[in-house]
Specification:
The chain has 10 helices and no strands. It is mainly alpha-helical. The protein is globular and about 50 Å long.
């Protein structure tokens, strides 16, 4: 079963606004336009693992155009530098954070059923455990901020997009081990945000 936030993933068509502002968000600086990466070019960027030497205009224009769905988790992890968080905090840090209770657990529990209630992922409960874990881990990581309403929607969106069921048919070997790492990677992406 594939989950989504309910929005179309097809970025190839452009909706027209009725107020005449169709080009409001378009970059009209032809001189500074970058190239838009193909799937193979995204793979090359990921293999090089070097964001510092990736041309900024190419990256921005490619992100505006959309990341290929199968590569989305890998690109998000690359852009938010997930490996550096894991290296800095160690392999078991996320597990330690979710194993501790938090003073925010009650508020988190209240919001679990309120988070995307019409989404099949959350309606069936499959998304609730990762949502709970990521929110608890964050509350324990940063007790000064803890948990506030609204975080559940940001994390919920990450759960919807990064859920392993979206990549069952993917041809990339990355997803062979994805079930074991996706939740923790979603947590580090949220920390970066």
């Amino acid at each position: 079963m594939e989950y989504s936030s309910g929005k179309s993933r097809n970025n190839s068509t452009k909706e027209s606004s009725s107020n005449g502002d169709d080009d409001f968000f378009e970059d009209n600086d032809e001189e500074n336009k970058g190239k838009i990466y193909s799937t193979q070019q995204w793979i090359s960027v990921l293999k090089n693992d070097d964001i510092e030497n990736t041309p900024t205009t190419d990256l921005i224009d490619s992100l505006r155009h959309g990341i290929p769905e199968d590569l989305r988790p890998m690109v998000w992890e690359f852009l938010t530098n997930v490996p550096s968080f894991k290296k800095k905090y160690g392999n078991n840090y996320y597990k330690e954070l979710i194993s501790k209770s938090s003073e925010y657990d009650g508020a988190i529990e209240k919001d679990l059923n309120r988070t995307y209630p019409n989404s099949e992922c959350f309606e069936k409960g499959e998304g609730q455990a990762p949502l709970r874990n990521i929110l608890r881990a964050y509350a324990n990581l940063d007790p000064e901020v803890g948990y506030t309403q609204g975080m559940n929607y940001i994390v919920g969106h990450l759960v919807l997009i990064l859920h392993p069921s979206n990549f069952v048919k993917s041809k990339y070997r990355y997803y062979d081990r994805y079930n074991d790492i996706w939740e923790e990677n979603a947590f580090w992406i949220f920390v970066y945000i």
